[in-house]
Amino acid sequence: MGAGVLLSGCKPDLTPASAQAMIQAEYDHRPPAGISITVDELGLKQGITANLWKLTKVYPNNRWADYTLTDAGKKALKLQTGGEVIQWRPELGGSFSFVVTSVATNHLRARDLKEIQDEVGGSKGVEFSESVNLDGVPDALQEMAHHPGNKLSGKHQADFTLEGGAWKLKSIE
After folding, report:
1. 56 phi and psi angles, rounded to 5 deg
2. HEC string of 96-120?
3. For 38-97, what is each residue's pLDDT tens digit?
4. Are the C-beta atoms of residues 98 and 39 closer than 8 Å to each other?
5. What residues does each domain of the chain span?
């Protein structure tokens, strides 16, 4: 049967499963990374409840405060600004947030592939969803990651070319 395919000049099929496997293999080849999480006022309170940080100073205006990472917090996250102190500085009547990065590192996940499309020049393309992987991230940080302002997934395009009789991942945009 393989000889018939070669003699007829037919291209092998690019299936959704093989396309997803190639995209995921590319993601797995990249270094794993922590998840950036924007923490708002609700997240600040959740972090206190989860013992990730504790209140260490309140300023005279009663809006500003400093929170210091606990030992549990140091094992779970890093502050984008570095150090161990969260400087909570909301303006009067305004919202405020800060960014943390999970210590747990993971690879992105490819999922929800759309229909594979033929492109110019015999290549193929597919739109898919890319999502972060929260495995190993403490529950409190996972909850914060689902608050507004955090992006856990996005749409991307993968392009494939036929090389040496096999489909290869060309790019992810």
Report:
1. -125, -15
2. CCEEEEECCCECCEEECCCCCEECH
3. 999 999 999 999 999 999 999 999 899 999 999 999 999 999 999 999 999 998 777 899
4. yes
5. 13-172
